[in-house]
Each structure stands twice: as structure tokens, then as C-alpha cells.
């Protein structure tokens, strides 16, 4: 692996899980010991962080992914996908010590699924690897983290960013009940959906009023600001415990597949934070809504994410 030159600065850096997925569509889920015929097979290059990176890069952000994959077929193709999308792989390490992590997903005709996730090489992303990426993390405009790698590693990365005055976007997904309190303090923008907000606060979230209430609760835990995404309603933005949270509505579109909408939203948000640092958070959220609204009108996750050329000039 060639060492990146000190002079290169990536505005958007993500320390995240590399989680390629194998998606199989079948009329129904197989029973134990059974072999059935399906009709569609698709390889995706997820992990939430990777999806968010790809969306930010497609909008024009100079983006780097800090992750670990194995020296195997999935690892090679995973790296290739980043290259294709203009995401830097200077910190995407291929290790001999583990196989690439992966998710196997079977979906039946009614949309029910069965999923197995193997963490693999993602388990090896720790402090040492983050230290290697220190030059990128400390000089970025924005760092994005989720909870698909070891939470200690995520928190370490967020702290590194904060120490260097790098803006942090934290997406607590998949949410865990006893999230370390320092995650809130290390988040400049804490970005979650309704079910994550519910799990983290223990408060029910099914309306804009509920989202506003949990948003204020999360602010009280120490977040700089909070965005609760609300699907077709848009999102609720909370910036201060002294200011009423605000619903930032989105446009009505015909959604064909909302998978990855949250990642499209966060990737777009990261782009705006990096490129328009003085823009109001509500305006960034309004624009990120419009980017995510494009993604729900197409099938797939990364396959549905728009490029800069597909978006109206007003968004830039
Ligand atoms: N049906 C929809 N119509 C328009 N915009 C949508 C729709 N669904 C989602 N969005 C946009 O995507 C953003 C994120 O969606 P959502 O709140 O469903 O996140 P999520 O649950 O993390 O998504 P997912 O898990 O499906 O990736 C919303 O804030 C909104 O801007
Ligand atoms: C899909 O799987 C779910 C859960 O196993 C089941 O309830 C549903 O009936 C299945 N649909 C079909 C078409 O088999
Ligand atoms: C929130 O995101 C999680 C993935 O982290 C997903 O499983 C869940 O269905 C989402 N909730 C809503 C309300 O969209």
C-alpha cells in the first residue's frame, strides 16, 4: 500500500465498516436444509459509512474511507467500487489476517428478509489503524461515523476529529441501548432515524412532536445539534435547547425503494458541511432531503444515489 502524501487533504472522511452484501431474491425464504430457486442475485458494496461516502463523493466531495477488508475476492471488488466512485482508498487496508466482512440477505416476495452478517476484517479496525489515518482525520472538514465497527473505534475516531476541530456527523446505527455518553458529546451533528431515537432515549417516536421531544433530549445529552429523519415527512432539526425544533419538510415523490435513503441523506449532509461551512443547518437539511428524495425514486442503495449532474443547480 502506498503511503498517502502529506499534502493531500480529504474534506470528508468516514471511519466505517466495509460490508459488501449478497442479496438474493426468492419467492419465499428457504427452510432449514432446503434448496430453492430464486430469481435475482445482486452484490452491493455497503456498510452505511461506505454508502454515505459514495453519496458525498458523487456530489463532489473529496472523500476517503477508513476501513479494513481481506485480501480476497470481496475485498478486491469492494476496493474497486470505491475507485469507480472516486472515494480515496489510501486508508482502506487489505489485511491477510481476516476475510472481508459480509452480509448475506435473502428477500421474499412480501419483502420479509433473513440476514446473516459476518464482521470479518472489520473487527480489526482499531486504534492503530485510526492512528495511521490521523493525518486524514485531523485535517478533514468533516468526519462521519456509525456503529457498524467496534464502538470504541468509532468513539476514538470522533474524539480525534473533535481534538482537531473537525466537524463530526455521528449516525448511531445500528443503535445500541447503552450507548456511551461520550458519543453525544463528540457529535457536532447527531443524525438518527425514528427507531434509533426511540431506542436511545426510551421515548416513543411516531410524530413530529415526538421527534422534537427526543431531539431536545439528545441535545441535553451533549450533542451539538440533532437531526431526526422522518422518511417522507423530511426531518426534524434541533439546534439548541432554547429554540423550538423545526420540521424541515421534503417534497412528495413516488418512492419505489427507500433502502439507503438515510445514507443518501447523511452523505449529502456531509457534502454540505464540508463545502458550505457557513450554511444554516436547516438549509443543509432541506437540501439533503432533496438529494435523498431522488434516491428513493430508484431501486437499490448506491445504485439509487444521484450524481452532481443529476441534481438541480440550486442544490449547489
Ligand atoms: N418516501 C420518501 N419520500 C421522500 N423522501 C424520503 C422518503 N423516504 C425517505 N426520504 C428521505 O430520506 C431521508 C431519510 O429517510 P428515513 O428517515 O426513512 O431514514 P432511514 O430510516 O435511515 O432510511 P433507510 O433505513 O431506509 O435507509 C428522509 O429524511 C427524507 O429526506
Ligand atoms: C415471507 O416471509 C415471511 C416471514 O417468514 C412470511 O410471513 C411470508 O408469508 C413470506 N411470504 C411469502 C410470499 O412466502
Ligand atoms: C432506522 O434505521 C435502521 C437501520 O439502522 C432500520 O433498521 C430501521 O428500520 C429504520 N427505522 C425507520 C423508522 O425507518
From TrEMBL:
Annotated substrate binding sites: 47-51, 148, 263
Q: Can you tell me which residues bind ATP?
A: 193, 229-234, 250, 262-263, 289
Q: Where in the cell is it found?
A: Cytoplasm; Nucleus
The annotated pathway is: Carbohydrate metabolism; D-ribose degradation; D-ribose 5-phosphate from beta-D-ribopyranose: step 2/2
Q: Which PROSITE patterns match?
A: PFKB_KINASES_2 (PS00584)
The annotated modulation of its activity is: Activated by a monovalent cation that binds near, but not in, the active site. The most likely occupant of the site in vivo is potassium. Ion binding induces a conformational change that may alter substrate affinity.
Which Gene Ontology cellular-component terms appear in the entry?
cytosol; nucleus
Q: How is the cofactor bound?
A: Requires a divalent cation, most likely magnesium in vivo, as an electrophilic catalyst to aid phosphoryl group transfer. It is the chelate of the metal and the nucleotide that is the actual substrate.
Q: Which family does the record assign?
A: Belongs to the carbohydrate kinase PfkB family. Ribokinase subfamily. Belongs to the carbohydrate kinase pfkB family.
Q: How does it assemble?
A: Homodimer.
Q: Which PANTHER family match?
A: RIBOKINASE, SUGAR KINASE
What is the name of the protein in this document? Answer: Ribokinase
**InterPro entries in the record:** Carboh/pur_kinase_PfkB_CS, PfkB_dom, Ribo/fructo_kinase, Ribokinase, Ribokinase-like
GO terms, molecular function: ATP binding; metal ion binding; ribokinase activity
EC number assigned by the record: 2.7.1.15
> What reaction(s) does this enzyme catalyze?
D-ribose + ATP = D-ribose 5-phosphate + ADP + H(+)
Q: Where does K(+) bind?
A: 257, 259, 295, 298, 300, 304
Listed under GO biological process in this entry are: D-ribose catabolic process; nucleoside phosphate metabolic process
Question: What functional role does this protein have?
Answer: Catalyzes the phosphorylation of ribose at O-5 in a reaction requiring ATP and magnesium. The resulting D-ribose-5-phosphate can then be used either for sythesis of nucleotides, histidine, and tryptophan, or as a component of the pentose phosphate pathway.
- Where's the active site on this chain? 263
Q: Which residues form the signal peptide?
A: 1-24
What residue stretches are annotated with the Carbohydrate kinase PfkB domain?
32-306
